[in-house]
């Protein structure tokens, strides 16, 4: 979908204000927390640092596009089942970052998951539920494969 916007407008503002895709959160506004993470051509980026012109002609996926309709993505299911969220503010960004990792490597190590989440900050969970979710995703893939 193409929409006319000023080239200097931040993608986070376009998503939230113009397209009403409010799953993408804005917390720090300077690219440090990861709450606004989206996938740009399959790679996680902070939408608060992404200007409209930088996304022209590229694929952009928000948290709203991670699931297949009513069917949750395996990362979303695992986060829910393993308690990988509390207040939920950072959850969308975490899921987006982990989905990018999962698409590249469905059975990551904890170190790989930690690296994938280095741009995401959570102040509530202590991360253990998140890492259990990563492990659960990998284990389910191993069982299916």
TrEMBL record:
Span of domain 2Fe-2S ferredoxin-type: 1-66
Family matches, as InterPro entries: 2Fe-2S-bd, 2Fe-2S-bd_dom_sf, 2Fe-2S_ferredoxin-like_sf, 2Fe-2S_ferredoxin-type, 2Fe2S_fd_BS, Beta-grasp_dom_sf, Diverse_Oxidoreductases
Transmembrane portions of the chain: none
Keyword set, alphabetical order: 2Fe-2S, Iron, Iron-sulfur, Metal-binding, Oxidoreductase
UniProt keyword Iron, yes or no: yes
Keyword set includes Metal-binding: yes
Any one GO molecular function term: metal ion binding
Name this protein carries in UniProt: (2Fe-2S)-binding protein
Native source species: Paenibacillus sedimenti
């Amino acid at each position: 979908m193409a929409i006319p916007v000023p080239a200097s407008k931040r993608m986070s503002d376009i998503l939230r204000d113009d397209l009403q895709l409010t799953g993408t959160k804005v917390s720090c506004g300077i690219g440090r927390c990861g709450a606004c993470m989206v996938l740009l051509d399959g790679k996680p980026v902070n939408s608060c640092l992404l200007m409209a012109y930088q996304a022209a002609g590229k694929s952009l996926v928000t948290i709203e596009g991670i699931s297949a309709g009513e069917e949750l993505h395996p990362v979303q299911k695992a986060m829910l089942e393993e308690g990988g969220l509390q207040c939920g503010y950072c959850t969308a960004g975490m899921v987006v970052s982990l989905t990018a990792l999962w698409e590249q490597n469905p059975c990551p190590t904890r170190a790989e998951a930690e690296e994938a989440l280095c741009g995401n900050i959570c102040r509530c969970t202590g991360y253990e539920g998140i890492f259990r979710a990563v492990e659960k995703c990998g284990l389910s893939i191993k069982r299916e494969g």
